[in-house]
Amino acid sequence: MSFWSKIFRKQDVQTAVLADHQLARTMTTRDLIALGIGAVIGTGIFILPGTVAATTAGPGIAISFILAAVVCSLAAMCYAEFSSALPVAGSAYAYGNIVFGQIIGWIIGWALILEYMLAVASVSTGFAGYFSSLLSGFGVHLPRAISGSFDPSHGTYINLVAVLVVLLVGAMLSRGMRTSMVVSRTMVLIKIAIIILFVGVGVFFIKPINWHPYMPFGFKGILGGASTVFFAYLGFDAVSASAPEVKKPQRTLPRGIIGTLIIATILYVAVAVVLTGMVKYTRLDVANPVSFALQVVHQPQLAGIIAIGAMAGMFTMMLTMVYSSSRLVYAIGRDGLLPKWFGHVRHQLPNNSLWVVTIIVAVMGGLIPLDQLVNLVNIGTLIAFAFVSIGIIPLRRHEDINNSGFRVPGYPVVPILSFIFCLVFMSQLSKETWLMSGVWFAVGLIIYFTYGYRHGHSTAKQPKQS
Questions:
Q1: Distance from chain centroid for Cα 401
Q2: Preceding amide of 339 cis, omega within 30
Q3: 8 Å CB contact between 11 and 98
Q4: 83 with 255: CB under 8 angstroms?
Q5: What pLDDT sits at residue 82?
Q6: At 189, which helix (H) or strand (E)?
Q7: I want to staple 13 with a disulfide (CB 3.0 to 4.6 A). Which of 138, 249, 366, 400 is the partner?
Q8: Is the pLDDT of residue 327 over 50?
Q9: Which residue has the higher pLDDT, 7 or 347?
Q10: CA distance 431 to 438
Q11: What is the residue-wise DSSP string for 65-89?
């Protein structure tokens, strides 16, 4: 086999679909929507509608959220078709491996590892900040030494709360998805209830004059707002990582992905409309605009409840992303591109990959300052979106794939449009983001050519079960 034919060899479809038979199928549509909402709706819903309205879009931020949702729905439909046609572990990595070849699958997988792990590590530090604020409200203050990333010159050595919350998430997931989903559904319900509470209370304090002018920055501002809030919807793709653990995946996965996007859009738009109606948009460029708006209308008692909602949002996001990244690393190990130890399954769970991911993320969240790295989450996501979108074309032409489930409407226009939008959003990322991602992908290619190239196989063999 030549060099080029080896790196572009495609995974056998039937073997890939059967490779994950040892994972327990316990998840329903309701579970998937809980996972999706858990990933998509985080602290951003309490921040973005205000700050983007103040700086970019004005009260027309609601239209920005709708436009961003329309663009996101293009990629969501592509994910839905792939998950219906190929209900396998690994999400976009596995799809790329099957329709494009091994090297493309590896690049997508490496991008997603970056996205998931950085996202969880950064959110864990945010959770620690909210938790410390909550404790201080009861007069409890954590020692400075355990309240920040490793920086001895400023007296901080570890962010202990960030480490502990990630370890708690890993421990929950190691007990199985049935237990984890009970907690996830409960947290998601709390989060949605708090958002509805804000909307329900805030609607009585709306002053229509605050919506004028509706588009102070013109339609250009609406478009700029859409490109900014687009990233608020990222996370629905994590739903497709659950394919081997879902009941009736051809029907359930598309419902979970598209249902997540619909519910998230309704919540984002509702918060944006109420928030900009409560307070003039020019006053919303603050760290926590929702709490600020409640203070303005003399409802400070609800601000603490919003903090609880934010913590619930961050916890469910971490749960979904640790789950997704562990299944991704499991799939890559199963295929031999990482050591096969990662693909081992115990008691119907890939706990080897789960604990490696958990420990790495806990160390990152506890010790490493992540401020400059968070933008890499966006580029990892957009690379996966782009490949999944354009991958619908070779998927439809693949002779071994017969998809009787969800299919993208408007083929091939919708996948091509989705691909183009992904490229447009990628072009808006900073040079620093591109430079840092270049280093990450260089490391990934070194790992691939020193290990994966020699050990990977085009057909997924059965992983060891113990």
A1: 27
A2: no
A3: yes
A4: no
A5: 92
A6: helix 177-202
A7: 400
A8: yes
A9: 7
A10: 10
A11: HHHHHHHHHHHHHHHHHHHHH---T
Convert 214-235 to b/e letters by CB count within 10 Å (16 or more is b).
ebebeeebbbbbbbbbbbbbbb
User: What is the chain's length?
Assistant: 466
What is the reported pLDDT for 372?
64
What does the CA dihedral 91, 92, 94, 97 come to, rounded to 10 degrees? Answer: 180
Per-residue pLDDT averaged across 130-152, rounded? 84
| Nearest partner of 319 among 255, 257, 240, 235, judged by Cα | 235
Structure-block tokens of residue 460:
């997924």
Q: How many CB atoms lie within 10 A of CB 270?
A: 21
DSSP 149-167: SSBGGGTB--BHHHHHHHH
Rounded to a whole number, what is the distance in angstroms from the first to the last CA of the chain? Answer: 34
pLDDT at 464: 45
Integer CA distances (angstroms), 408 to 243, 246, 297, 322, 396, in order: 18, 21, 45, 28, 10
**Structure tokens belonging to residue 396:** 């439809």
Which amino acid would we find at residue 94?
A
Q: Which two tokens stand for residue 240?
A: 């497709």
Instruction: List beta partners, residue 147.
Output: 159
Q: How much is the average pLDDT of 213-217?
A: 94
Record the pTM. 0.85
Lookup: tokens for 333? 């190990």
Average pLDDT over residues 289-317: 85
DSSP SS3 for 380:
helix
